[in-house]
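Q: Could you predict the 3D structure of ABC transporter related protein?
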Amino acid sequence: MIELSNIKKAFNQNQPNEYWALHGIDLSIEAGKVTAFRGPSGSGKTTLLTIVGCLSRPTSGRVRFKGEDISGLPERFLTDIRRQSFGFVFQQFNLIKGLSALENVILPAFPTGRPRSELVAKAGDIFDQLKLGHRSAAKVEWLSGGEQQRVAIARALINDPEVIIADEPTANLDTALSKEFMAILEGFTAAGKTVLLTSHDPLVVESSAVHRVVGMRDGRLTEA
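A: Sure. Here are the predicted C-alpha cells for ABC transporter related protein:
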C-alpha cells in the first residue's frame, strides 16, 4: 500500500546546523495491518511518519501510495490526499480548548463541504463506538486524559481515512488506558484500516494488536 524508496530527510540543508534525520529508508507497508516503529528519541520515527502522511516532503527518495508516486505532487494535491486518506493522532492530542469534543471532531471535515448535519451524525456514530457519546458536548479541557485521547481518535476518523497515523499515542496514558487504546486499534484493523504508530512502550510494541515492528536508530532501519 505504501512504498518508501531511499528516503532521506535533511533539516537546515546547506546550513552550518544541517542535520540528516533519515538516511536512505527502504520500506513497504502492508494494507490492513498495524505497523509499529520502535526506537529511541531522535531515531527518525516521527520524521518518517510525517513524510508518509504527506505532512512533509523527503529531501530525496520516493513515496508511493497505492501505486502512485506522490513525492513530487504539488501541495494542493498532497493536502487532498492527506485529508481524504490519512487520520492523525498526535502525542499531545492537539485539541482546541474552548471547543466541545464534537466541535473538535468535525472541524477537520469542514473543508470537504459536507453538510454540518451529516458531520454531526457521523461524529455521533464514532462517539458511540468509542463510548464517548455522553461527553460530546463537553469542552475538551474538562475531559480526562483517556477521554481526550478518544476525542483525538474520533477526529482522526471523521473523514473515514484508509490510514491512521499515531505518534506515541500512549505516552501520556497509564497502563489501563494504554491497553484500552490497543483494543481500539484492533477495531481499526478489523474495519480494514492500516495503522502506523511510533512507540517506546513495550505494552504497545509487544501487543497482539501489532502485526509488525520496525526498529529505527540514527535515521536508519535496524529491523523490519
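Q: Anything worth pointing out?
A: The mean pLDDT is 91.
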